[in-house]
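Q: Predict the bound structure with iron/sulfur cluster.
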Amino acid sequence: MVAEALPSLEQRLADVARDHGFVAFGIAHADAAPETAARLNAWLAEGRHGDMIWMESRASQRGSPRGLWPEVKSVIALGMSYAPQIDPLALAGVPDRGRISVYAQGADYHDVVKKALKAVARWLVAEAQGAEVKVFVDTAPVMEKPLSAAAGLGWQGKHSNLVSRDHGSWLFLGAIYTTLDLVPSTPGRDTCGSCTACQDACPTQAFPAPYRLDARRCISYLTIEHDGPIPVDLRRGLGNRIYGCDDCLAVCPWNKFADTAARHRAFLPRAELVAPSLADLLALDDAGFRQVFAGSPIKRIGRNRMVRNAAIAAGNSGDARFRARLAELTGDESPMVADAARWALAELAS
Ligand code: B12
Ligand code: SF4
Ligand code: SF4
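A: Predicted complex:
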């Protein structure tokens, strides 16, 4: 009797990843994206990372998997869907509400993706004796987008994020580095063609060229990462975006193929984060902030950045009802909140 061949390790790994909520899976050799380090270094040399000093402090480790871990042979790239069921741009015309980017309306993806990565990695270690693994999502010095493209999950679009034929712009990425020499997948192919929709949609002209982002002008950076006053010339461009921005992602034509049913249930939006009232956000103190944003990735920006962002959105609203609260905030203990409130009052007066 002929024994039936077991599916390959790579196939079983893909199946296990799917069981743990990953809808996109691929494998790349550790040296599959050799141009990445030079591109990262050029970006850093131009200062495009702004005050994200953590991007430059471990650049040699970030630039290539072997820079971080010399023994790594393969990168397993994984994607979890957070595809929205409603148009992320729908709130653009509702100025007394704040817009929170889709990725932050549900549970914190760092927790959800990390837990699933660890489960997949544990399976691999048990299955392939002697395999060593390290798991990463977002915060480690790992270039998740070019590695995912090399592993066939999609391609880096002109907005620089990974676009998938099946899931559009809406994948969280994670990676498992391993000492195993796995069979690589076919790399993704750039299918942007002559489209420029993402570049044209950016409210703050944050793309000096296709595929290149100047983070210092990006609303995601300004509202989340940047701790200080937001440059005055960019404040109107924020509109009512108070945490992150989805515009360049949302206009991508490939989203029409995104399978919204593939969204991981942890990323279902929390009702209070879909269209929060600016009046409520302007009223937040530290304890109130922690209560509303517990369990959400938003919690890490703290009350001051959130109220700064809400004050700028109030200034952009044209709604005189915000004046009284903004006047109170001009005396806020946080200088950046007070500054944003003064600017907003002047905008409303004009
Ligand atoms: C720093 C960072 C940011 C910064 C800078 C973003 C950026 N584009 O670099 C800020 C705060 C602005 C940001 C914003 C967002 N981020 Co972010 N961010 C990161 C982080 C931590 C590192 C990214 C990085 O390495 N940047 C450095 C630059 C140099 O790398 P790069 O963008 O890949 O640049 C490439 C191109 O410039 C390209 N290139 C250069 N020249 C040329 C020429 C040609 C012809 C070509 C083809 C390419 C090319 O080569 C470079 C190297 O690959 C990653 C997590 C991680 N560890 O990877 C998440 C990550 C990229 N972010 C993510 C998300 C979701 C977002 C937001 C959508 C959140 C939001 N809604 O507000 C926005 C999107 C803004 C945008 N258009 O990029 C996801 C993206 C998932 C995906 N599907 O791609 C990631 C992967 C987090 C995760 N684990 O899921 N982010
Ligand atoms: S996230 Fe918004 S601000 Fe940043 S590049 Fe995209 S459209 Fe521009
Ligand atoms: S909007 Fe157009 S150019 Fe931008 S990533 Fe999507 S297909 Fe590419």
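A: The chain is about 40% helix and 10% strand.
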